[in-house]
Amino acid sequence: MAAIGTDVGGTFMDIVLLDDDGSIRVGKIPSSPEPEYSSMPLRSL
After folding, report:
1. Which end of the chain is more exposed for a tag (fewer CB within 10 A), N or C?
2. Checking DSSP bridges between strand 12-18 and strand 24-30, what pairing results, if any?
3. What is the distance between the terminal CA atoms of the chain, rounded to a whole angstrom?
4. What is the pLDDT of residue 3?
């Protein structure tokens, strides 16, 4: 099973994805101006 972790800050959103095979992917996207929090995890992957 894959797992996703996120951290939404004032300037950036960080995301970590742990794939089924154990590989790790990380992403960082701006959370401003006017963030659309609901779509941020998918856009960062």
Report:
1. N
2. antiparallel
3. 17
4. 94
